[in-house]
UniProtKB/TrEMBL annotation:
One of its GO terms (biological process) is phosphatidylinositol-mediated signaling. Signal peptide: none annotated. Residues 27-104 form the PI3K/PI4K catalytic domain. Keywords: Kinase, Transferase. One of its GO terms (cellular component) is phosphatidylinositol 3-kinase complex. This is PI3K/PI4K catalytic domain-containing protein. Belongs to the PI3/PI4-kinase family. Type III PI4K subfamily. PANTHER family: PHOSPHATIDYLINOSITOL 4-PHOSPHATE 3-KINASE C2 DOMAIN-CONTAINING SUBUNIT ALPHA, PHOSPHATIDYLINOSITOL KINASE. SUPFAM superfamilies: Protein kinase-like (PK-like) (SSF56112). GO terms for molecular function: 1-phosphatidylinositol-3-kinase activity; 1-phosphatidylinositol-4-phosphate 3-kinase activity. InterPro entries: Kinase-like_dom_sf, PI3/4_kinase, PI3/4_kinase_cat_dom, PI3/4_kinase_CS. It catalyses: a 1,2-diacyl-sn-glycero-3-phospho-(1D-myo-inositol 4-phosphate) + ATP = a 1,2-diacyl-sn-glycero-3-phospho-(1D-myo-inositol-3,4-bisphosphate) + ADP + H(+); a 1,2-diacyl-sn-glycero-3-phospho-(1D-myo-inositol) + ATP = a 1,2-diacyl-sn-glycero-3-phospho-(1D-myo-inositol-3-phosphate) + ADP + H(+). The keyword Cell wall biogenesis/degradation does not apply.
Length: 104
């Protein structure tokens, strides 16, 4: 954890899913994990924008996220089609990025 905090002291980071978002540190107290087979890590980061909200992200290892990426893209397309037809299904759409073999 010290190496991560040291990295944040030297540099700010941009999120791969949304490069317009920039983080300057971790909110360790808000970080946790989800109760799931892959035990994904919930990462809470401090936004460099003082008016911006805390940046929430999830990281997991052990599952092929390429399948998740495809499924989420299909859900997003379906949501757009439904909205065009006047059907608001109140879908919560989020992004997914595979950053390596079985991780992202």
């Amino acid at each position: 954890m010290d190496r991560v905090q040291l990295m944040f002291r030297k540099n700010k980071i941009r999120l791969p899913l949304n490069p317009s978002m920039e983080a300057k540190g971790l909110n360790v107290k808000a970080c946790s994990f989800y109760n799931s087979n892959a035990v994904p890590l919930r990462v809470a980061m401090v936004n460099t924008d003082p008016m911006g909200e805390e940046i929430q992200s999830m990281f997991k290892v052990g599952e092929d996220l390429r399948q998740d990426m495809l499924a989420l893209q299909m859900i997003k397309i379906m949501d757009k089609l439904w909205l065009q037809e006047g059907l608001d299904m109140r879908m919560v759409i989020f992004k997914c990025l595979s950053t390596g073999t079985d991780r992202g």
